[in-house]
Amino acid sequence: MRSGFVAVAGRPNVGKSTLVNALAGGKVAIVSDKPQTTRRRIAGVVNGDDHQLVLVDLPGFQRPLDTMTERMQRTVDQAFEDVDAVLFVLSARDRIGAGDRFIAERVFSLSVPVVIALNKVDRLKPSHIATQMDTASKLGNFHALHPVSAKTGDGIEALRDELVELLPEGPAYFPPDQRSDLTPEDQVAELVREKALALTREEVPHAISVEVEELGEKVVRANIYVETESQKQIVVGRGGAMVREIGTRARPEIEHLLGHPVFLELQVKVRPRWRRDERLLERLGI
Ligand SMILES: Nc1nc2c(ncn2[C@@H]2O[C@H](COP(=O)(O)OP(=O)(O)OP(=O)(O)O)[C@@H](O)[C@H]2O)c(=O)[nH]1
Ligand SMILES: [Mg+2]
Hints:
Helices cover 37% and strands 22% of the residues. By secondary structure, the protein is an alpha/beta fold. Strand 2 and strand 3 form a beta hairpin.
């Protein structure tokens, strides 16, 4: 039996969480087109007959701006301390630049193998992919480089096999039917946040956090926190239309997760400066 942990690092929005979901064969982490979607460490468990690969999805690297982003940065640093390998994710659709080199410095200085995933190669010209692969290969002393598309599944199996090869012998760390290390409450909160992110723009997605208050047999109650009254107006929407839409989109996925129908009750609340509130951040797992 081989088992171990692989940290998934890369700039915001390059598709780390989408890739973790693809490798795990199901939804572990929420995804959005806004940067800084992932705020906490989430383990995605990939089980095979003779292996257990634990992918550690992480927030995108960034410069800390406030207490929340400082804590996110610390999460990333700590995650590097005890892993068997790093999966360094790049986007083939964007210029590989300073942000990627900043992360490269960190991951290539760890004494574990680094596998580069050049993600988002779907619908790109082969010549462009080749150029991006060439640039990626100059970032550091990598163990392997895989062009992939987390969206279409292209190259995912080969990448999974490559990562499993790097694992040492060891026990299973999670029961075979567990796909993520989040509690059901946290998974539900994340699903609600995902739908809120998809429906909002500019500064609003960054000001949203979600906490589940009650996870019952029939009723699920969650609070959506924002920082200002005007953000609340946006998230509530005209006559409650926006928060209703968030609920409509989140409910089927929550029911699928819990395995039974639920009544989903969402409340939008103003909590000024929650991104600087250590106690709330702790409670939110950030
Ligand atoms: N075309 C294409 N889009 C992708 C692919 N993988 C991810 N995306 C899109 O890229 C955006 C960001 O995806 P995420 O998985 O949330 O990115 P992330 O790196 O986890 O971002 P943070 O958590 O914010 O650091 C989403 O809109 C995804 O749908 C891919 O292979 N191809
Ligand atoms: Mg993410």
